[in-house]
Design goal:
The chain has 10 helices and 10 strands. By secondary structure, the chain is of the alpha/beta class. The protein folds into 2 domains: 136 residues, D-Maltodextrin-Binding Protein, domain 2 (3-Layer(aba) Sandwich), CATH 3.40.190; 102 residues, D-Maltodextrin-Binding Protein, domain 2. The strands form 3 sheets. The protein has a 5-stranded mixed β-sheet with strand order 2-1-3-10-4. Helix 2 links the parallel strand 1 and strand 2. Helix 2 packs across helix 9 and helix 2 packs antiparallel against helix 10. 41% of the residues are buried.
Protein backbone atom coordinates (compact mmCIF):
# COMPACT_ATOMS: atom_id res chain seq x y z
CA UNK A 1 0.00 0.00 0.00
CA UNK A 2 2.80 2.39 0.99
CA UNK A 3 4.64 1.76 -2.30
CA UNK A 4 1.44 2.41 -4.26
CA UNK A 5 1.01 5.76 -2.52
CA UNK A 6 4.62 6.71 -3.29
CA UNK A 7 4.18 5.66 -6.93
CA UNK A 8 0.96 7.68 -7.18
CA UNK A 9 2.64 10.79 -5.75
CA UNK A 10 5.61 10.34 -8.06
CA UNK A 11 3.38 10.06 -11.14
CA UNK A 12 1.44 13.16 -10.06
CA UNK A 13 4.70 15.08 -9.65
CA UNK A 14 6.01 13.98 -13.05
CA UNK A 15 2.70 14.88 -14.69
CA UNK A 16 2.66 18.34 -13.09
CA UNK A 17 6.29 18.97 -14.12
CA UNK A 18 5.49 18.01 -17.69
CA UNK A 19 2.52 20.38 -17.73
CA UNK A 20 4.72 23.16 -16.36
CA UNK A 21 7.41 22.45 -18.94
CA UNK A 22 4.94 22.66 -21.82
CA UNK A 23 3.83 26.16 -20.87
CA UNK A 24 5.40 29.01 -22.82
CA UNK A 25 7.92 30.89 -20.66
CA UNK A 26 8.46 34.60 -21.25
CA UNK A 27 11.07 36.92 -19.76
CA UNK A 28 10.17 40.53 -19.05
CA UNK A 29 13.05 42.89 -18.30
CA UNK A 30 11.82 45.87 -16.29
CA UNK A 31 13.32 48.75 -14.35
CA UNK A 32 12.82 48.37 -10.60
CA UNK A 33 10.38 51.26 -10.31
CA UNK A 34 7.87 49.56 -12.64
CA UNK A 35 8.03 46.07 -11.09
CA UNK A 36 4.74 46.27 -9.18
CA UNK A 37 2.40 47.08 -12.09
CA UNK A 38 4.31 44.75 -14.40
CA UNK A 39 3.90 41.82 -12.00
CA UNK A 40 0.18 42.51 -11.68
CA UNK A 41 -0.25 42.62 -15.45
CA UNK A 42 1.91 39.51 -15.80
CA UNK A 43 -0.47 37.52 -13.57
CA UNK A 44 -3.41 38.46 -15.81
CA UNK A 45 -1.56 37.47 -18.99
CA UNK A 46 -0.33 34.22 -17.41
CA UNK A 47 -3.90 33.21 -16.60
CA UNK A 48 -5.32 34.24 -19.96
CA UNK A 49 -2.62 32.58 -22.11
CA UNK A 50 -1.62 29.71 -19.79
CA UNK A 51 1.99 30.82 -19.76
CA UNK A 52 4.72 31.72 -17.27
CA UNK A 53 6.22 35.22 -17.15
CA UNK A 54 9.52 35.66 -15.37
CA UNK A 55 10.20 39.24 -14.32
CA UNK A 56 13.85 40.28 -14.36
CA UNK A 57 14.33 43.57 -12.51
CA UNK A 58 17.30 45.89 -12.21
CA UNK A 59 18.79 49.11 -13.53
CA UNK A 60 17.75 49.92 -17.09
CA UNK A 61 21.31 49.81 -18.41
CA UNK A 62 22.20 46.52 -16.70
CA UNK A 63 19.01 44.91 -18.01
CA UNK A 64 19.75 45.96 -21.56
CA UNK A 65 23.33 44.67 -21.32
CA UNK A 66 21.95 41.37 -20.00
CA UNK A 67 19.45 40.84 -22.80
CA UNK A 68 21.97 42.01 -25.40
CA UNK A 69 24.50 39.46 -24.16
CA UNK A 70 22.11 36.53 -23.62
CA UNK A 71 19.79 37.20 -26.56
CA UNK A 72 17.05 35.70 -24.42
CA UNK A 73 13.75 37.24 -23.43
CA UNK A 74 10.60 38.80 -24.80
CA UNK A 75 9.94 42.30 -23.43
CA UNK A 76 12.00 45.28 -22.25
CA UNK A 77 10.66 48.17 -20.14
CA UNK A 78 13.35 50.67 -19.09
CA UNK A 79 12.78 53.69 -16.87
CA UNK A 80 13.12 56.11 -19.76
CA UNK A 81 12.46 56.01 -23.50
CA UNK A 82 16.05 57.12 -24.06
CA UNK A 83 17.21 53.53 -23.43
CA UNK A 84 15.11 52.43 -26.41
CA UNK A 85 16.13 55.31 -28.65
CA UNK A 86 19.84 54.93 -27.92
CA UNK A 87 19.84 51.15 -28.46
CA UNK A 88 17.63 50.80 -31.53
CA UNK A 89 20.77 50.57 -33.67
CA UNK A 90 21.50 47.11 -32.21
CA UNK A 91 18.35 45.69 -33.79
CA UNK A 92 17.14 43.90 -30.64
CA UNK A 93 14.15 46.20 -29.97
CA UNK A 94 11.16 45.84 -32.29
CA UNK A 95 7.78 47.53 -32.05
CA UNK A 96 6.90 49.35 -28.85
CA UNK A 97 4.05 51.06 -27.03
CA UNK A 98 3.92 53.94 -24.56
CA UNK A 99 2.20 52.78 -21.36
CA UNK A 100 2.76 55.67 -18.93
CA UNK A 101 5.40 58.02 -17.68
CA UNK A 102 8.04 58.56 -15.04
CA UNK A 103 8.84 61.92 -13.47
CA UNK A 104 11.62 62.77 -11.07
CA UNK A 105 11.11 64.59 -7.75
CA UNK A 106 12.99 65.45 -4.59
CA UNK A 107 12.56 62.72 -1.96
CA UNK A 108 12.80 63.70 1.71
CA UNK A 109 12.01 62.10 5.05
CA UNK A 110 8.36 62.07 6.11
CA UNK A 111 7.24 65.52 7.17
CA UNK A 112 10.29 67.13 5.56
CA UNK A 113 11.87 67.92 8.96
CA UNK A 114 14.74 69.91 7.41
CA UNK A 115 12.38 71.98 5.23
CA UNK A 116 14.18 71.02 2.04
CA UNK A 117 12.75 72.78 -0.99
CA UNK A 118 15.62 73.39 -3.42
CA UNK A 119 18.22 71.58 -5.48
CA UNK A 120 20.80 73.77 -3.76
CA UNK A 121 20.54 71.47 -0.75
CA UNK A 122 22.55 68.87 -2.69
CA UNK A 123 25.67 71.00 -2.21
CA UNK A 124 24.88 71.87 1.43
CA UNK A 125 27.39 70.04 3.64
CA UNK A 126 24.84 69.94 6.47
CA UNK A 127 22.46 67.81 4.37
CA UNK A 128 23.16 64.10 3.92
CA UNK A 129 22.32 62.96 0.41
CA UNK A 130 22.38 59.89 -1.79
CA UNK A 131 22.41 60.07 -5.60
CA UNK A 132 22.11 57.40 -8.25
CA UNK A 133 25.09 56.64 -10.46
CA UNK A 134 24.38 58.37 -13.80
CA UNK A 135 25.98 55.41 -15.60
CA UNK A 136 23.61 52.88 -14.00
CA UNK A 137 19.89 53.38 -13.34
CA UNK A 138 17.56 55.59 -15.37
CA UNK A 139 17.10 57.90 -12.36
CA UNK A 140 20.86 58.44 -12.30
CA UNK A 141 20.84 59.58 -15.90
CA UNK A 142 17.85 61.81 -15.19
CA UNK A 143 19.51 63.30 -12.10
CA UNK A 144 22.53 64.30 -14.17
CA UNK A 145 20.28 66.04 -16.71
CA UNK A 146 18.40 67.89 -13.96
CA UNK A 147 21.58 69.24 -12.37
CA UNK A 148 22.95 70.39 -15.73
CA UNK A 149 19.69 72.15 -16.56
CA UNK A 150 19.55 73.75 -13.14
CA UNK A 151 23.09 75.17 -13.22
CA UNK A 152 26.15 73.64 -14.82
CA UNK A 153 28.71 70.83 -14.70
CA UNK A 154 30.42 72.43 -11.70
CA UNK A 155 27.19 72.12 -9.71
CA UNK A 156 26.78 68.52 -10.90
CA UNK A 157 30.26 67.60 -9.69
CA UNK A 158 29.80 69.36 -6.36
CA UNK A 159 26.48 67.58 -5.77
CA UNK A 160 28.01 64.15 -6.41
CA UNK A 161 31.10 64.98 -4.35
CA UNK A 162 28.84 66.02 -1.46
CA UNK A 163 26.78 62.82 -1.63
CA UNK A 164 27.63 60.33 1.11
CA UNK A 165 26.36 57.38 -0.95
CA UNK A 166 26.12 56.60 -4.66
CA UNK A 167 23.26 54.20 -5.41
CA UNK A 168 22.63 52.01 -8.43
CA UNK A 169 18.84 52.14 -8.66
CA UNK A 170 15.67 53.65 -7.17
CA UNK A 171 15.38 50.91 -4.54
CA UNK A 172 18.78 51.83 -3.02
CA UNK A 173 17.75 55.48 -2.81
CA UNK A 174 14.48 54.78 -1.01
CA UNK A 175 16.09 52.36 1.42
CA UNK A 176 18.65 54.97 2.48
CA UNK A 177 15.86 57.43 3.29
CA UNK A 178 13.73 54.86 5.11
CA UNK A 179 16.67 53.80 7.26
CA UNK A 180 17.43 57.50 7.91
CA UNK A 181 20.96 57.24 6.58
CA UNK A 182 20.29 60.31 4.41
CA UNK A 183 18.01 63.35 4.28
CA UNK A 184 17.54 63.83 0.56
CA UNK A 185 17.66 62.22 -2.87
CA UNK A 186 16.16 62.48 -6.35
CA UNK A 187 13.99 59.56 -7.41
CA UNK A 188 11.07 58.59 -9.63
CA UNK A 189 8.00 60.05 -7.93
CA UNK A 190 5.70 57.03 -8.31
CA UNK A 191 7.72 54.93 -5.86
CA UNK A 192 7.06 57.43 -3.03
CA UNK A 193 3.38 56.44 -2.98
CA UNK A 194 3.89 52.69 -2.54
CA UNK A 195 2.73 51.30 0.79
CA UNK A 196 6.21 50.29 1.94
CA UNK A 197 7.59 53.79 1.22
CA UNK A 198 4.76 56.26 1.83
CA UNK A 199 5.01 56.00 5.64
CA UNK A 200 8.61 57.22 5.54
CA UNK A 201 8.96 59.43 2.47
CA UNK A 202 7.51 62.68 1.17
CA UNK A 203 8.18 64.29 -2.19
CA UNK A 204 8.97 67.87 -3.13
CA UNK A 205 7.96 68.37 -6.80
CA UNK A 206 10.44 69.82 -9.26
CA UNK A 207 9.44 72.24 -12.05
CA UNK A 208 8.57 70.35 -15.22
CA UNK A 209 11.15 72.38 -17.15
CA UNK A 210 13.80 70.68 -14.98
CA UNK A 211 12.09 67.30 -14.56
CA UNK A 212 9.89 66.62 -17.60
CA UNK A 213 7.66 63.59 -17.80
CA UNK A 214 9.57 60.63 -19.20
CA UNK A 215 7.73 58.20 -21.44
CA UNK A 216 7.61 54.57 -20.34
CA UNK A 217 7.86 52.51 -23.51
CA UNK A 218 7.72 48.72 -23.53
CA UNK A 219 9.46 46.99 -26.46
CA UNK A 220 9.15 43.58 -28.07
CA UNK A 221 12.52 41.83 -28.31
CA UNK A 222 13.67 40.53 -31.69
CA UNK A 223 14.68 37.14 -30.29
CA UNK A 224 11.40 36.51 -28.46
CA UNK A 225 10.17 32.94 -28.96
CA UNK A 226 6.65 33.92 -27.87
CA UNK A 227 5.93 37.04 -29.90
CA UNK A 228 2.15 36.61 -29.97
CA UNK A 229 1.87 36.50 -26.18
CA UNK A 230 4.45 39.29 -25.81
CA UNK A 231 2.39 41.46 -28.16
CA UNK A 232 -0.71 40.64 -26.11
CA UNK A 233 1.14 41.81 -22.99
CA UNK A 234 2.00 45.11 -24.70
CA UNK A 235 -1.56 45.57 -25.95
CA UNK A 236 -3.05 44.89 -22.51
CA UNK A 237 -0.61 47.29 -20.82
CA UNK A 238 -1.80 50.15 -23.01
CA UNK A 239 -5.50 49.21 -22.76
CA UNK A 240 -7.99 50.85 -20.38
CA UNK A 241 -7.66 47.98 -17.93
CA UNK A 242 -3.87 48.05 -18.11
CA UNK A 243 -3.82 51.82 -17.67
CA UNK A 244 -5.89 51.51 -14.50
CA UNK A 245 -3.16 49.27 -13.08
CA UNK A 246 -0.44 51.72 -14.14
CA UNK A 247 -2.37 54.60 -12.56
CA UNK A 248 -2.76 52.70 -9.30
CA UNK A 249 1.03 52.68 -8.93
CA UNK A 250 1.51 56.33 -9.90
CA UNK A 251 2.36 55.90 -13.59
CA UNK A 252 -0.33 58.00 -15.25
CA UNK A 253 -0.28 59.65 -18.63
Amino acid sequence: MFSKIILSLLLTFIFSVNLYAKKPILILYTGITMVKPMKEIAKIIEKKYDCIIKVSQGSSKDLYESLKYSKKGDLYLPGSESYRINNLKDGHLLEAEEIGFNQAALFVRKGNPLNINSLDKFVDKNIKTILCNPEAGSIGRETKKIFLKYKDESFLNKAYDNSIFIGTDSRNLNRALIEEDVDLTINWRASAFWDENSKYIDIVPLPEKLAPKKKLVISLLSFSENKDIARAFIKFSSSKEGQKIMKKYGFVR
